[in-house]
Amino acid sequence: MARLSAKTVNGRLNILVFYLSSSTEFQKINPDLSLQLLEYDKRFEQYGSEFTFYDYNQPLELPSTMQHGYKIVVADPPYLSEECLEKVAQTVSFLMQPEESHLLLLTGEVQRERAAKLLGLSPCGFRPQHSSKLGNEFRLFTNYDPGLRLGGWEQQLGVLN
């Protein structure tokens, strides 16, 4: 369910998305935006230069031009394992600009403590829904206070962690 993230370069908005759930989702994103998708599934190669092959097992094997190039990153890791999130965290650190960057992580509730420990993330009130009946509850975590957007952070809503 990953959406998009943005980077402004020379007045143009560039987008970084990795681990998007389907090519249909990618097609729905605003065509006026310049997109960059990091994905393992090579079916996304149909998007040409907007596609970068990404294998979470090789978290830093990305073009050097991407290093610290994004102010906003949206990540949707493929697995709910500790190992997967640790490697995705390495990739996120590689991609994000060092100061005032925003991270949105879509993953299972079971990753709550790891997301906080590895990336300094808090859960939002917004809960992603899947069209298929997945057995795991999914959540959205951010490293910034979304205010009233995305349902705010849970503690703002009075929900106990």
TrEMBL record:
Localization of this protein: Cytoplasm
This protein's UniProt keywords: Cytoplasm, Methyltransferase, Transferase
GO-annotated cellular components: cytoplasm
Pfam family of the protein (one): N6-adenineMlase
GO biological process, alphabetically ordered: methylation
Gene Ontology MF terms in the entry: protein-lysine N-methyltransferase activity
PANTHER family cross-referenced by the UniProt entry: EEF1A LYSINE METHYLTRANSFERASE 1
Protein name: Uncharacterized protein
